[in-house]
Design brief:
single chain, alpha+beta, Phosphorylase Kinase, domain 1, Aminoglycoside 3'-phosphotransferase, Chain: A, domain 2
Length: 456
């Protein structure tokens, strides 16, 4: 089988034969970013067979561009979204892999074969770890690792069920491999920033152990798995359900955030924001608001009120623009893990995946992460019935107090800056929920109504 697969990776008809299967399967994946628009075709960027010739099973690593029509209001086509696919290939699929089925190939170089999600096959998932254990090249793929880290052989893999914008594999409760599904060329913040923090000695962030790439695309990062750790989002919801206070944890989260910001500011360049830069930031927020209002009609009545926050930010000019640095970029309760000893760690530095990579890597005021956390407390409170505004307000204040205690300054002392970034985040949430989770749209819309009328 693998000899045939190896031959197929260089065959021009490979992507043509996969086309009808991928058109059906790809849009159903949570990490597919082009929902709502039909896929009109695929272009193969690269194809690598990860198993040696003669193997009964094939393991195809593909980078594939999905071609789609323009979105409403888009005047010119940008680059097609590129996706990382890891496909298992067998003649017949055993029963335990039935849920991983993508489809059967009736034509092309692999005609008669069955194609499936390779990450759900323990043997194939284990092969990825072996590649990371033994750095080197596999055709166009480059596997690298931290020379000071040890990776044991034979760790049992399991795929995490909660698909987000990426996929994750846990190996023996020792490591977790994050695989980027929609990939873009350039330095991936989820590798770049944790490496910088590790060099700076920041213990709040798990240090990368190994990673792999294809040309300019970072494809996956292996980090220690924090066994027994509690997800901040789940912990907050449990406390809410029991009617328990969460302000002590919120304060600890504020301190952890400030420590990470301080380490990032020491490890990577920072810039001072003058009038021109502040006005550009405000203009970008206004542009995102206008685009979101065009895409989500429910947002349009509130757009004028929301724009007031961005005008106030622009008016700060060079008197209170502050400084900008590298930040997390998508900070919320689910990006924190609390170890059994109570210590909080920060994970997932990819930033908001829908934003361009250049924007995600751009220095930003630290208040951007603070605003993300304030919105996350609101999300948690709104997901519980009855809605508890006092719970959310208590957590928000405790978080800001903890941030100030750790030397980050009190974000509440700069209300124009905080309101602008919280508004920008809520606008992003509206667009995201409208596209991916319409049932959640009322949560950010409640914040939109509050922010549009200038309420605290």
């Amino acid at each position: 089988m693998s000899e045939a697969v190896t031959h197929a990776t260089g065959h021009p008809e490979l992507i043509e034969s996969l086309d009808p299967l991928l058109r059906e399967w790809l849009p159903r994946q949570r990490w597919f970013s082009g929902k709502g628009r039909p896929v009109t075709g695929f272009a193969l960027v690269s194809a690598t067979e990860l198993l040696p010739p003669g193997s009964a099973t094939g393991f195809l690593h593909l980078l594939v561009e999905a071609q789609q029509p323009l979105v409403p209001g888009q005047s010119a086509a940008g680059p097609a979204d590129c996706y990382q696919l890891l496909l298992g290939v067998r003649r017949t699929l055993p029963p335990h892999l039935a849920p991983a089925l993508i489809g059967h190939l009736g034509s092309g170089p692999l005609a008669g074969s069955t194609v499936y999600e390779g990450l759900r096959d323990p043997r194939l998932a284990g092969l990825l770890l072996e590649r990371l254990r033994m750095p080197g090249r596999a055709d166009g793929l480059l596997f690298e690792r931290d020379p000071d880290s040890e990776i044991a052989a034979g760790l049992t893999p399991r795929m995490l069920g909660a698909e987000q914008s990426n996929s994750s594999l846990v190996y023996g409760d020792t490591f977790i491999l994050k695989l980027f599904r929609r990939v873009v060329p350039g330095d991936q913040p989820d590798l770049e920033l944790p490496l910088a923090l590790a060099r700076a000695g920041c213990a709040r962030v798990p240090a990368p152990v190994a990673w792999f790439r294809q040309g300019p695309h970072v494809l996956g990062v292996l980090v220690p798995y924090l066994a027994g750790a509690e997800d901040g989002w789940e912990l907050a919801l449990r406390r809410l359900a029991k009617g328990d206070d969460f302000t002590a944890e919120a304060r600890a989260l504020g301190r952890a955030t400030a420590e990470v910001h301080s380490a990032l500011a020491g490890a990577l360049p920072t810039v001072s924001l003058g009038r021109a830069q502040t006005e550009l930031i405000a203009a970008g927020m206004l542009e995102r608001l206008e685009a979101a209002a065009q895409a989500v009609p429910a947002l349009r009545p509130y757009a004028p009120g929301l724009a007031v926050a961005f005008d106030a930010l622009a008016d700060l000019g060079d008197t209170d623009g502050g400084r900008a640095q590298r930040v997390h970029g998508d900070l919320h309760l689910g990006q924190f893990l609390r170890a059994p000893d109570g210590v909080w760690s920060v994970i997932d530095f990819e930033g908001e995946p829908a934003r361009p990579l250049a924007e995600r890597r751009r220095p930003q005021p630290p208040v951007r992460d603070v605003a993300g956390m304030l919105r996350s407390f609101d999300y948690a409170a709104r997901s519980h019935r009855p809605w508890s505004p006092d719970w959310a307000a208590g957590c928000r204040n405790a978080y800001c107090a903890g941030y100030a205690e750790a030397g980050g300054g009190d974000p509440r002392e700069r209300p124009e800056l905080l309101r602008a970034y919280e508004t920008d985040k809520a606008v992003y949430e509206v667009l995201y929920e409208a596209r991916h989770r319409p049932d959640w749209l009322p949560v950010p819309m409640a914040a939109i109504r509050r922010l549009a009328f200038g309420e605290a």
